[in-house]
Backbone:
């Protein structure tokens, strides 16, 4: 704790009297709330230790964030927001203008705390689903003309579903090699492998690399799950979008599908029971209403089928990633117990089954709502 306080004090303007509390958020980085105990100088910061096993070059993360923040801050064209209202500000070190602290091979950064805000692990209402859609649509609208050639690609093949499928095949071979003495695998694993094998053609549903799809590239968030949206505590209106570590050039359909995957799962990302997992059509409709309100021109670029397919493929893809990580020993996603990523894969594939069972209804309301 002494070391943690020392790190926090490198960013705090009241370094001699602070408290540091670990927050149980995020699957990759470790996050802490830093609070000043000095009543005359109230201050709150979000402190993060960057997971360099995933983000090997933290300087690229900082470079991307500053570029994105400054684009909205100084762009003079009409927009729904500027960066100061949607993106938390990076906090420089007290004794320099740098935004990264390197200590014993570890990298740390800090953001301003968005006061009077709240977030959710599960969407509680259609009105919040609408606000999430409005927030993501605002983000995409505001950055649709950001020159992406100046952005670093943080995670190559982030949404290359073929790549993730082949990774799963190889990681399962690795897992079987480690467990060569087992004549029969856990029934949970067997069920998931069979599930994937039956749907392996899903990897061709949406591929922005294919010239026939012509989906185009612009800035994507990369991880627009419900917990990465902040809302005003009183009005519950969209306030901010956070965690831009995976922001990079990409196809915004992956963002849209990922966001719908997250907010429409009434059981949340880590439910108590698989029986709690289900895709909520009403949340899907509300989210799309909010998104189109913020970014109406979006509909000019994509077919309704491709929008619907984005939900299906991103859910499948995330399940592949969780299962691969489990087979490799939980190297990418932080876990609370050894089989956590196995359970996460089960959640995504259960959600995919719910999407499949309502597929005709999804296409029907999208055709009415978006046409």
Residues:
């Amino acid at each position: 704790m002494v070391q943690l306080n020392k790190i926090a004090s490198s960013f705090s303007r009241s370094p001699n009297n602070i408290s540091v509390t670990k927050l149980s958020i995020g699957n990759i980085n470790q996050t802490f709330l830093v609070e000043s105990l000095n009543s005359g100088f109230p201050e709150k910061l979000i402190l993060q230790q960057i997971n360099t096993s995933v983000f090997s070059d933290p300087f690229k993360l900082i470079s991307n964030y500053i570029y994105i923040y400054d684009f909205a801050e100084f762009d003079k064209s009409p927009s729904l927001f500027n960066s100061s209202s949607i993106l938390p500000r990076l906090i420089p070190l007290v004794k320099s203008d740098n935004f990264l602290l390197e200590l014993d091979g570890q990298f740390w950064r800090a953001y301003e705390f968005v006061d009077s805000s709240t977030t959710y692990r599960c969407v509680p209402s259609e009105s919040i689903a609408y606000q999430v859609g409005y927030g993501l649509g605002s983000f995409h609208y505001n950055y649709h003309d950001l020159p992406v050639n100046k952005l670093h690609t943080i995670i190559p093949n982030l949404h290359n579903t073929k790549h993730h499928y082949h990774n799963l095949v190889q990681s399962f071979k690795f897992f079987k090699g480690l467990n060569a003495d087992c004549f029969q695998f856990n029934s949970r694993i067997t069920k998931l492998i069979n599930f994937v094998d039956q749907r392996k053609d899903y990897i061709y549903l949406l591929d922005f690399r294919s010239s026939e799809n012509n989906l185009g590239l612009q800035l994507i968030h990369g991880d627009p799950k419900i917990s990465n949206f902040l809302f005003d505590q009183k009005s519950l209106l969209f306030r901010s979008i956070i965690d831009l570590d995976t922001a990079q050039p990409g196809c915004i359909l992956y963002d849209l599908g990922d966001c719908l995957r997250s907010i429409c799962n009434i059981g949340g990302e880590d439910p108590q029971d698989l029986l709690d997992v289900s895709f909520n059509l009403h949340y899907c409709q509300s989210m799309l209403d909010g998104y189109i309100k913020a970014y109406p021109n979006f509909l000019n670029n994509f077919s309704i089928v491709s929008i619907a397919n984005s939900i299906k493929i991103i859910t499948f893809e995330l399940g592949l990633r969780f299962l691969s990580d489990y087979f490799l020993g939980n190297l990418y996603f932080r876990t609370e117990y050894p089989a956590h990523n196995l359970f996460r894969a089960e959640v995504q594939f259960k959600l995919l089954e719910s999407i499949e069972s309502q597929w005709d209804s999804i296409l029907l309301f999208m055709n009415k709502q978006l046409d």
The radius of gyration is 21 Å. The chain has two domains: 2-113, 126-370.
